[in-house]
Structure formats: C-alpha cells, structure tokens
C-alpha cells in the first residue's frame, strides 16, 4: 500500500539543454517529417522564431536530463523495476526552442492504491514537473501517471 504521507515530496531540480539535433533525431525516430522540426527556415516560414520542440518531446527530458529520478523514487519506497507508464499530459506556457536551458522540479502530487489481479495491488502515482527556462520564465508543466504493481 502506498504511503500517502509522501504526497507533496519534491525531487531535486534537474536541468536539460534543448538541442537542435535531438529535436531532429526524435522526430525522425517517431516518423514525424513535418519540416518545422527539421529546418530553421521551415519553422520561421511557419511563424516560429526557431525550430520548436514537438508536442511529446518533454517525455524525454526526464530520461535525458533527470539522472537522479530513479534513486529519488527509490528513496520514497517505490520499486522502480515495477513501474508501468500510465499516461502523460503537457501544458505549454511558452515556446521552447534549441539552446533553451530548462530546469525541472518534479513533485509527487497524488498517490493511491487500487486492487489488482492475483492478490496484487496497484499503486497509482501522479508526478508533476514544472519547467522554467534560463530566464526563470515558466514554460511547461507536465503530469505523468505511473502504475506500480505491488
């Protein structure tokens, strides 16, 4: 059973520098050939200041930039080897472009236990990460639901 006293715990902030090449590579990998993600000229012709990140790019910020997330979760008693990704949502507050340096702070905002099958239970956790850019301007909020089979 999930320890609800852990709700409200924030992890150490992490930084991620948005790289033009990574935007390009990610969109190649997912098959998104929209030219605004591959060419500054195409992005500017479409009204952007530079190549924007694509809508689901923030999923990777935690993997590429937050190297202590797993240990932070383990410190809360979460068995990271039993995590399944539930869902994710993004709230964009400002454009994010190459060379932006983002600082993210993740907080456990909800947690509950539900019955599972075979005598197991499921802990369902909601993590929120708030990002600011190098100018301390809020640019992005993300929420992710994680399911942990206990």
Automatic annotation (TrEMBL):
Gene3D superfamilies, A to Z: Hotdog Thioesterase (3.10.129.10)
Domain FAS1-like dehydratase: 6-140
Protein's name according to its UniProt entry: FAS1-like dehydratase domain-containing protein
Organism: Dictyobacter halimunensis
Highest taxon, organism lineage: Bacteria
Pfam families: FAS1_DH_region
Taxonomic placement: Bacteria, Bacillati, Chloroflexota, Ktedonobacteria, Ktedonobacterales
InterPro entries: FAS1-like_DH_region, HadA-like, HotDog_dom_sf
